[in-house]
Amino acid sequence: MKILFLILMIAVLVCTAGCADRAEDEAEVAEQADLALLVENTTVDIKSGNLTYPAYLAAPASTGGKGKMTKYPGIVMIHSFNGLEPGYLDLADELASQGYVVIAPEWQTFERTPKDGVVEGLVRNSADYLKGREDVDGKRLGLTGFCAGGRYTMLFLPQMDEFKSGVAWYGFPYSAGFNNETRPADLIGGLEAPLLIIHGSRDAASPVSQIYQYATALDEEGKYFELKVYQGEPHGFMIEEGELSESFPAQDAKVEMARFFDRTLK
């Protein structure tokens, strides 16, 4: 009987521990959901050169208190060649809910294929806009871009000291751009900020073989980078028909970007 009693007691303890673990896991998930910040979004004007560009802005909502304002890292987001589609706005909102102030300028407002210098000026002015906000820590700015924006991220990160890290989505390291200008791979020597490269193995527009070649060059120059390649994914896999993709690779890649910025900007 004593043996039977001991067996029953052990079973009860194991079940209790399992229930407690599940309760703790559920509580942690709930706590993480509660930590998501309320978001305010709007459209602002960014002056660059002699032109004024619209830009989408997403930021943690102000608490309205009289205490010291919280300063968040800022991110400049460069959309793809297809324009500032709704999926990018949702992505900006999600990053804002995680404690970032995100600005996404519409770089094709006046030209579909502007010169690199035009986009560079707009990105710099967007960074200046973030640094001018009371809720942004101007010393903690990140850069991210998709497709053509991925190329711009690779191109500008070595040239702009204001950015402390960058995430390049399916970019073009060996492309000279729309107007046959500079290749990002030619500027590797000037790269100081950490770079995360996100790509698909079946990207027909930007073959993954070139990404491996770029990664090898980065490594040879001793530049810090991280590379995440999603098997079977095509070019532009983060956005489907203008919206954020619900696929596992897209959702996972979104988390990878957020974690990278958390580690490099927070």
Main traits of this protein?
6 helices, 266 residues, Rossmann fold, 2 domains, 10 strands, alpha/beta, 38% helix
Biggest sheet, open or closed, and with what strands and sense? 8 strands, mixed
Number of H- or I-type helical stretches: 6
Radius of gyration: 22 Å
Count of the domains: 2
Shape: globular
Tell me which CATH architecture of the largest domain applies here: 3-Layer(aba) Sandwich
- In total, the number of strands is 10
CATH level 3 topology of the largest domain: Rossmann fold
CATH C-level of the largest domain: Alpha Beta
Spatial separation of the terminal alpha carbons:
59 Å
Helix content: 25-40%
Task: Compute the average pLDDT.
Answer: 89
Give the full name of the CATH homologous superfamily of the largest domain. Alpha/Beta hydrolase fold, catalytic domain
- The helix/strand series, from N terminus to C terminus, equals HEEEHEHEHEEHEEEH
Low-confidence stretches: 1-34
What structural class do helix, strand and pairing data support? Answer: alpha/beta
Structural write-up:
This protein is of the alpha/beta class. The protein has two domains: 1-35; 37-265, 3-Layer(aba) Sandwich (Rossmann fold), CATH 3.40.50. It has six helices and ten strands, in the order αβββαβαβαββαβββα. Residues 1-34 have low confidence and may be disordered.
Q: Quick recap of the structure?
A:
By secondary structure, this protein is of the alpha/beta class.
How would the blueprint of this fold be written?
Layout: H1 2-35, E1 39-48, E2 51-60, E3 72-78, H2 86-97, E4 101-105, H3 116-131, E5 136-146, H4 148-156, E6 163-169, E7 195-200, H5 208-220, E8 225-230, E9 239-240, E10 243-244, H6 248-265
Parallel strand pairs: 3-4, 3-5, 5-6, 6-7, 7-8
Antiparallel strand pairs: 1-2, 2-4, 9-10
